[in-house]
Specification:
heterodimer, A: alpha/beta, eight-stranded mixed sheet, 8 helices, 38% helix, 17% strand, B: 46 residues
């Protein structure tokens, strides 16, 4: 082979190798990204159950009010032999403006598989069709739904005598409001609450992720919408503000009789500011409420970067359920 | 006839695969952090 031919062949091989390297990078990059998005830690797999007739049954879109959104789903355990059951409500996330009870089907199935009657409840979301909806009106809807849930479960042969309430993000806020504010009026005693990343206080200085600490008018606007009451920038720091925001500030309702709670927050949360959780923690500590607080030091609103702590959160939920809402 | 996968090329290819794998995971983490908050390092592996 002539040297010219050899050089040409080597150049061809080098070109081919460069192409191979580019392809390998793309495949490796894409594969890794997909793996990262879809990988579930083995320790969390036990919280996803294979649902079938032996696990239980699901009743969907049961009504608790006149509104289009006033619907709930019941996940009923297969064992119908018990005299009484405990209810666990899980409220969906979605920033009070989106989301659906079906989003938490995995959690509800897991709870039912443990022997609880589990309920996912929708509430009227704030959107163009419902511009009057607020965190307060949503919490009032949840309050009004519980008697209907208890009644419907009873009709289906599951007599409820105790309950826990829980949720994620917006659902977490609504769960806290029911547990700390409305529990005394619950048709069955509330025994515990668990939630993740739900805002429980509304002070502009804590909401710096939205720049509300530097813009009192914007803060007044947002908190007016959330509370459903007229809040002005001049009210911040006054007793009038405390009164106006109390109906949706779960931490303000914590007292020595509040139910045991498991709560989780991400330090880098961009959606529900981490600083807004410190009042809740302080209130739980001050009132000696049994609680498990789990701080995710590398995560944001999805608690996505601290899987080991997410496992701890779920294990804490299991322990609290076992201690405060034991399966009969 | 010269080998296509020389030792040098094998090492380069392995390094590129590793960089691609790490970059893919980092990119997803960075994107999620952008949406919901989070640190780029610490906690889970990448």
């Amino acid at each position: 082979m002539s040297s010219e031919k050899k050089i040409k062949k080597n150049k061809h091989k080098t070109g081919l190798f460069i192409l191979l390297c580019v392809g390998a990078f793309i495949v490796s990059f894409g594969g890794s990204a997909v793996f990262k998005l879809t990988y579930a830690a083995p320790a969390l797999k036990k919280y996803t159950v294979d649902w079938n007739d032996e696990t239980g049954t699901i009743r969907t879109d049961l009504s608790y009010g006149d509104g289009d959104a006033n619907k709930f789903d019941l996940y009923l355990p297969a064992d119908r032999s018990k005299e009484t059951y405990s209810l666990v409500v899980y409220l969906h996330a979605g920033g009070f403006t989106t989301g659906d009870k079906s989003d938490d089907a995995d959690m509800l199935k897991w709870l039912a598989s443990k022997g609880y009657v589990a309920a996912g409840i929708n509430y009227t979301l704030r959107n163009e069709q419902n511009p009057q909806a607020s965190v307060y009106s949503q919490s009032a809807e949840i309050k009004s739904s519980i008697p209907a849930v208890v009644e419907e479960a009873g009709k289906l042969g599951y007599n409820l005598d105790s309950m826990a309430i829980s949720g994620g993000s917006a659902g977490g806020t609504l769960a806290m409001l029911y547990a700390y504010r409305d529990a005394a009026e619950s048709p069955i005693p509330v025994k515990m609450m668990f939630e993740a990343v739900g805002p429980s206080s509304f002070y502009p200085e804590d909401w710096s992720v939205y720049g509300l600490d530097r813009n009192p008018d914007a803060a007044a606007g947002l908190f007016s919408v959330m509370s459903g009451s007229g809040i002005t920038a001049y009210m911040f720091g006054t007793e009038a503000y405390e009164e106006a925001i109390k109906p949706i500030s779960a931490y303000m309702w914590v007292n020595e009789n509040s139910v045991p709670s498991v709560i989780a927050y991400g330090v880098y949360d961009k959606v529900s500011p981490f600083d807004a959780s410190k009042h809740l923690l302080r209130a739980l500590e001050k009132n000696n409420v049994p609680h498990q607080y789990i701080e995710f030091p590398h995560s944001g609103h999805a608690l996505q970067n601290d899987t080991a702590l997410y496992v701890k959160y779920m294990e804490s939920v299991e322990q609290y359920l076992k201690a405060y809402l034991p399966i009969k | 006839m010269t080998k296509f996968f020389t030792t040098k090329r094998t090492v380069i290819l392995a390094a590129i695969l590793l960089v691609g794998w790490i970059s893919g995971r980092l990119a997803v983490r960075a994107f999620l952090n952008l949406l919901v908050g989070g640190s780029l390092f610490g906690g889970n592996f990448l």
